[in-house]
Amino acid sequence: MAVVFDKPHALTDAPFHYCPGCTHGIVHRLVAEAIDELGIEGRTIGIAPVGCSVMAYDYFNCDMIEAAHGRAPAVATGVKRSDPNNIVFTYQGDGDLASIGTCETVHAAARNENITVIFINNAIYGMTGGQMAPTSLPGQITQTSPYGRDVATVGYPIKVCELLSNVDGASYLERVAVNNVKNVKNAKKAILHAFKNQVEGKGFSLIEVLSTCPTNWGLTPDKALKWLEENMIPYYPLGVYKDRYSGEGE
Amino acid sequence: MAEKVLMKGNEALAEAAIMAGCRHYFGYPITPQTEVAAYMSKKMPKIGGTFLQAESEIAAINMVLGVASTGKRVMTSSSSPGISLKSEGLSYLAGCDLPALVVNVQRGGPGLGGIQPSQSDYFHATRGAGHGDFHMIVLAPSNVQEMVNLTFKGFDLADKYRMTSMILADGTMGQTMEPVLLEQGEITQYEKPWATTGTKMERPHNIVNSLFLKPEQLEVENFKRYERYKKIEETEALYDTYRMEDADVCVVAFGIGARVSHNAIDEARKAGIKAGMIRPITLWPFPKAALKEAADKVKAFISVELSMGQMIEDIELATRCAKPVMLCNRVGGMIPTVKNVYDSIVEADKIGGDK
Questions:
Q1: CATH number among 3.40.50.970, 3.90.1170.30, 1.20.1600.10, 3.90.330.10, domain A24-243
Q2: Do B249 and B303 touch, CB atoms closer than 8 A?
Q3: How far is B284 from B120, CA to CA, in rounded Å?
Q4: Would the ipTM clear 0.90, i.e. be above it?
Q5: Which end of chain A, N or C, is surrounded by fewer C-beta atoms within 10 Å?
Q6: Minimal Cα–Cα distance from B146 to chain A, Å?
Q7: Which residues of A touch B67 (CB under 8 A)?
Q8: Is residue B56 exposed (0-12), middle (13-18) or buried (19+ Cβ within 10 Å)?
Q9: Mind listing the pLDDT tens digit for each residue in B254-306?
Q10: Are A78 and B63 an interchain contact pair (Cβ–Cβ within 8 Å)?
């Protein structure tokens, strides 16, 4: 029988621990497909974050390192500088990348470190049980913003792609979403592009993936996808924010 | 045979690291160790190495973790306030069982403190370098030659035991110029099958990780680590002695404290007091056996420190409080004078217990 659909080789057989309806599984698969298509698994080293995807090291077949909270871009820098022929990616959530690790993120971009950053923005802290994230929307109710995110006291969400588009060093910045088939296909294209950039030595690429957290949003998976579309995409517009090599966003 | 060259401690240490095969340095400027970074920034690009001035001490230690994960020799250096920032990374290096060399050229604290020499990070280095149960191998140079030799030693021990070696120098050691012999024996190469260098599609993936959610498993990881520590305590303690053959009073000192004590002991001997010194070279493992043996022979110990009595605990533990332990110290960037130590020796000779 002809195989028409298979699991990417770059994913292990370990079952994901993610909640039903969580989009981490989709993004893991897209990353693995990109690694397969570029034939780079044997020289790829992934850096897992602290957050829901902390155990990503069990799910990718390439060599993996588990970094301290927010430090993945610094660890990736070390791995990349050790052997520039390695393909190095980080996989980070919004608390990891845009709160505790903002400094490491901005400076890795400023150095145009030749790495690929996969940034999962689901507007909430998942692993610790639904606290306010740096990317939680104004008015969003979380465990630590029970009356809704009050921008007068806790400030506004951080828009990572917009922020980094002002960093001269960054090469490629794109925001995608995984809430429907069309957007998943676009996300795949962006992630593949970000890895290809690295293979070609084009420097720092970051793909921000708008994702869902049904459990901590308190929504069913399908309603979570709708919430993403109606609330997150308007605040975090999709698209290419910078592409040094096509001139987009420059 | 190489000839001696006149070098500053920080620069000699940096050159020794390069000789030891270190090709990756990450750091952040802070007095009084910045010469290490400056030296590396000059040398590394010329030998195909990496010098990177990180955005913070936290980033620097995590870059070190990245290189260490790939199995290559790597280092960072800093001074006290910067070392506090590195503490998170030191804990992760320990939890991941990664070899690295970290240099602390200490200055006065706490807080921003000052920029003059200190030894007040003794507790940090020997006990509390970060969260969780772990140790670092702590090497305390007492002259510029040891800045060199202990750098060689530090890299070797780090690789041998898959852990961090820390050079715990005081500011004096970093800033002093002395003639040194830059000569290293053969470098032992250690197999690193655990390194994340890419699977080449030839082996299962390697994972460098400190997360173990099952408590039974995390317990085993800790027990295994402490088995290694036990072996290190039994075999790797280093120390030097001076005029201990017939000593009544035993000075315990390291770094610049030992240099001063050396002269004070000579003065005491001239005055008819039998003083000697045990100089720990490894602060962890602490040379317990040497101290214990001395406790049977001397009347009293004096801990000479640039800190508030931090080493006293180790002396009392090693000797099971068999003899009184006095403190002779200056802090905040001040250095004990020969007279400070001499006066303590005279006092210890009077109050000391029976031999």
A1: 3.40.50.970
A2: no
A3: 15
A4: yes
A5: N
A6: 28
A7: 78-79, 81-82
A8: middle
A9: 999 999 999 999 999 999 999 999 999 999 999 999 999 999 999 999 999 99
A10: yes
